Amino acid sequence: MGASFRLRYPLVMKFCSTCGHPVISKIPEGDHLPRFVCTACNTIHYENPRIIAGCIPEWEGKLLLCRRAIEPRRGYWTIPAGFMENGEAVQDAAAREAQEEALADVEIGSLAAIVNVIRAHQVHIMFRARLKNTNFGVGPESLEVGMYDEADIPWSEIAFLSVDFALRRYLEDRRAGREDAHFRDIDYVDGKIVLRDR
Amino acid sequence: MGASFRLRYPLVMKFCSTCGHPVISKIPEGDHLPRFVCTACNTIHYENPRIIAGCIPEWEGKLLLCRRAIEPRRGYWTIPAGFMENGEAVQDAAAREAQEEALADVEIGSLAAIVNVIRAHQVHIMFRARLKNTNFGVGPESLEVGMYDEADIPWSEIAFLSVDFALRRYLEDRRAGREDAHFRDIDYVDGKIVLRDR
After folding, report:
1. pLDDT tens across A136-149, in order?
2. Beta strands A182-189 and A106-117: pairing type?
3. Pairwise CA distance, residues A164 & A187, whole Å
4. Which of A15, A34, A86, A100 would suit a FRET pair with A65, their CA atoms being 20 to 30 Å apart?
5. Is A114 left (phi over 0), alpha (psi -120 to 50) or beta?
6. Rounded distance, CA B54 to CA B95, Å?
7. Which has the closest alpha carbon to A119: A191, A55, A168, A183?
8. Interface with A, mutate which of B43, B46, B188 (most A CBs under 10 A)
9. Rounded to the nearest 5 degrees, what angle is found at the Cα of A174, between the Cα atoms of A185 and B183?
10. A28-42, B31-45, B63-77 — which one is most confidently predicted on average?
């Protein structure tokens, strides 16, 4: 199960995962950012952004959406998406999330969007997808799964800004007969959401 | 400094970074993959793929390449690329790496390639870029930085398969007057490298 969009890691490291001794936050020699460094074995523990892989499954013009059964944003609608795992490709992660959240078989298509969700330390990578059949269902992380015509998409109940962005660009492209990739940053500055297109 | 392409983390976790007690590897309830889980506080420690952000800086038809001063692949040529950091966008990470490795000011352009480097737990995301001026130099992680005409690229001394792929597709696209995004997996199966285009 993808544990989608939850922060997946303790934000503050207190102990070295290699030797168990306390770590401190400091800028290692030759580096330019503070890292957690072990006071005993000197291991440097890097934290880097994580990838959320998702897809927009289409069937006869309708889009598959899932209503979330888990926090954050329980009860809101999203596309299948979740944390990419070690040992897989980002496209396969997106297809796996469709299987897990909507029991859906999809064929991954072109890249739809890359969204830098800067304060969450996440990069959301979302692909177009074709539903291979209509044997989808409700996965354990979903309350409900449905196929939506463009006119019926519950825009006011979309779980995440990145998903709203990907869906809107997807539909604009579809109307125009193209399949572009779209890029945006979602950031917070002085407590306010700032959106930057690229 | 980007510490490019080095494995950035201990591959095996022995102690909980939250409480310092030993962890074991097990599949948490409701999950489907083994994770390191603390025997005392039950914290689940997830490991996910990391992003290498890079760019292909161009100036008057020539491409900027760096000869690596660090392992792995010391002495081999690459484009500016390195680990994306928390708090930045992938495009800004690519530009920062150009600054660090080649003291180069670049303007990031369109997406050139996404390569899943599966066994390394990395996703390489590489952009086209325009060198803003020719005031580049040799950063501390480079032995040498140069501008190469297509005919002079040292193909047999390129450091990484992902970079070879991005450069070749970039040049093909340039000849054809297009700017496509290209996708590949680099995997190992039975001890052999397997390349999969997508």
Report:
1. 999 999 999 999 99
2. parallel
3. 15
4. A86
5. beta
6. 8
7. A191
8. B46
9. 60
10. B63-77
Distance CA B156, CA A108 (A): 34
Report which residue type is found at A37.
V
Interchain proximity A123–B90, CB inside 8 Å: yes
Q: Return the CATH superfamily for domain B50-197.
A: Nucleoside Triphosphate Pyrophosphohydrolase (3.90.79.10)
Cis peptide before B72 (omega within 30 of 0): yes
pTM score of the predicted model: 0.94
Contact list, A32 vs chain B (CB under 8 Å): 1
Among 2.20.70.10, 1.10.10.10, 3.40.50.12780, 3.40.50.720, name the CATH number for the domain at A2-45. 2.20.70.10
User: How far apart (Å, rounded) are the C-alpha atoms in residues A141 and A4?
Assistant: 9
Name the token pair of A32: 């330019």
**A78-131 tens-digit pLDDT:** 999 999 999 999 999 999 999 999 999 999 999 999 999 999 999 999 999 999
DSSP, residue by residue, B58-105: EETTEEEEEEESSSSSTT-EE-SEEEPPTTS-HHHHHHHHHHHHH---
For B2, the closest chain A residue by CA position comes to A31
The sign of the dihedral angle between the CA atoms of A20, A26, A32, A35 is: positive
Q: What is the DSSP letter of A166?
A: H
What would the pLDDT profile of B144-198 be if each residue is shown by its tens digit? Answer: 999 999 999 999 999 999 999 999 999 999 999 999 999 999 999 999 999 999 9
Instruction: Give the tokens for residue B22.
Output: 């030993």
Spell out the domain ranges in chain B.
Answer: 2-45, 50-197
Residues in chain A within 8 Å Cβ distance of B47: 86
Assigned token pair, B8: 């950035």
Compute the distance between CA of residue A173 and CA of residue A96 in angstroms, rounded to an integer: 25
- A2-45 against A50-197: fold identical: no
Residue A126's Cα: distance from chain center in Å?
A: 8
Between A and B, how many CB-CB pairs are < 8 A? 141
Instruction: Identify the CA nearest to B53 among candidates B105, B129, B118, B119.
Output: B129
Among residues A90, A168, A176, A85, the alpha carbon closest in space to that of A126 is found at A90
B198: chain A residues, CB-CB within 8 Å = 89, 91
B115: closest CA among B58, B181, B32? B181
